[in-house]
Amino acid sequence: MTYRFEFLLPFVLYLIVLVVIGFLAYKKTKTMEGFHLGNRQLSPWVAGISILFSGSSGWIFLGCAGLGYSMGPSAWFMLISFMITMLIAYTLIGKRLRNYSGLLGSITYPEFFVRRVRSNRNGIRLIASLAVFVFMTTYVASQYVAAVKALKPIFNMTDLQVVLLTAVVVTLYCLIGGFMAVCWTDFVQGMVILGGSIIMCVFLVVEAGGFGEVFSKLAAIDPKLLSAKWATWPLILMFWTAGLGGVGRPHDTIRFFALKDSHSARGTAMVGEISLLFNYWTGYMIGYIGRVFFPALKDPETIFPTLLIEMFNPWFAGIMIAALMALIMSTIDSQLLSAASTFTEDFYHTYVNKRASEQRLVWVSRVSVVAIGVFGAVMAMYMTETVNNLVLFATAGLSSTFGPALVLSLYWKRLTEEGIIASMLTGLVVSVYWFLSPLKAITGLHESAVGFFFAITVAVVVSLLTKPLPSELVESDFEIIRKDYSGEEMAKIDSLGESYGLN
Question: Within 10 Å of residue 2's Cβ, how many Cβ atoms?
Fold first, then answer.
């Protein structure tokens, strides 16, 4: 009984801290910009870590650790791929997107694309809302599945109990505190994750007798665990192309909207990439070294909780379970808020009540958070895929739908409304088709790359065949967004949205 209590106490205290952060952030949620973007006052430190951990999810300690456990160095291709593409996303997207979203007065992700092409129609919003519904709810459900794998063996809870506990806590602080609560909890959770996972890796290496003993014991289990040369070309190709899923996802890209200024984008990139380096590789190493101690687990994705139960001091184990839940919740909260903002602004405000007040829209957002949280929880009870597969599918769908349109919006002046619509629809359809098609296994190409390639190609072709915006208008936009701004300069850019008649 004492052992259970020592696990439980730090975990419960951690959950209480998250809810308290939600209450502290409540004062910044009185307007739509406050609820969904924290009044655009995010610092580089908070933004960089929040971007990372809103996208990392329970995949790090479950999916990534499971890959390290079962495949060893062959999993490196995926980790390196994500690191490269995330660095590109940080450096090429951050500054321009902060400037452009402020210039256009955009609060939600779909709204940015609508205003980028000065549209007064609803095609972009409809497709974006559909993509968010399909992929975000899958993503949320995958994190509930991750929570089940983490908590069930430790606290002897049922699947339903774990899902309900996770859903209630994360929905509560997201519901109360909005975007700032999400970002600050991501930051706190990120610190717990980075510190705890490093300590855990060091302990496992020492306990195994050093790296020499680790490699010797792994060789005895399976020689393939010592080298990446055993990976097949289809597997390597799939892992390399999966990395494109890190570009343009709404739930982490929206952080760039909220930076206090575009000059902060560089600091955000540095913080995010360094955190990513430690986060991905400690997750991998926990699974890889864990194979030494538990060489025959039925489900490799349970190596993390198994190590905690069997090998670690229960007080530390309780903190690390909190760290795992940090990853899971930091993704769920971002998904909930991103989906809620899309539903509120791009569906309710556009189609149901165009004259809704700020207060009404904020409350619709809160109701949306609850509804999406419940729907994801119900989906999780019927999921049979692994956490790794679910996360990669949802990531691929979001990136394929939004990534090509985002990159072209920031760098190609000739992009048209029809091009964005065609790109989003192509990315959505192709990524789902490729995930279900046998062509994925035959070619080794992940749906992230296939969807992205087709979507960007279609966007270019359709844009060239349709009428562009006036060249002087786009030239003016691009002249503004390519520069660095801070302080009063950034405030002036944010105020320009009114001059376009957009706010």
Answer: 7
Q: CB-based contacts of 395: which residues, under 8 Å, 6+ apart?
A: 55, 139, 245, 246, 249, 448
Angle at 41 between CA 36 and CA 48, to 5 degrees: 85
412-465: per-residue pLDDT in tens? 999 999 999 999 999 999 999 998 888 888 888 888 889 999 999 999 999 999
Residue bearing tokens 């000059």: 263
Q: How many residues does the chain have?
A: 503
| Separation between Cα atoms, residue 311 and residue 435, nearest integer Å | 38
Phi first, then psi, for residue 51 (nearest 5°) are -60, -45
CA–CA separation, 320 and 77 (whole Å): 27
- Residue 96 is which amino acid? R
Q: Is 421 exposed, middle or buried (0-12, 13-18, 19+ CB in 10 A)?
A: buried
Is 217:375 a contact under the CB 8 Å cutoff?
Answer: no
Q: For 123-171, what is each residue's pLDDT tens digit? A: 898 898 888 878 888 888 887 887 888 777 777 778 888 888 877 777 6
Residue 442, Cβ density class (10 Å: 0-12 exposed, 13-18 middle, ≥19 buried): exposed
Structural domains in the chain plus CATH codes: 2-388 (1.20.1730.10)
Give the C-alpha separation, 130 to 278, whole Å. Answer: 34
Which two tokens mark 118? 């000065």
> CB under 8 Å, gap of 24 or more: what pairs does 12-15 form?
14/192, 14/319, 14/322, 14/325, 14/326, 15/169, 15/322, 15/325
Cα-based distances in Å from 58 to 144, 215, 226, 386, 462: 9, 27, 26, 12, 38
Task: Give the whole-angstrom CA distance, residue 427 versus residue 358.
Answer: 33
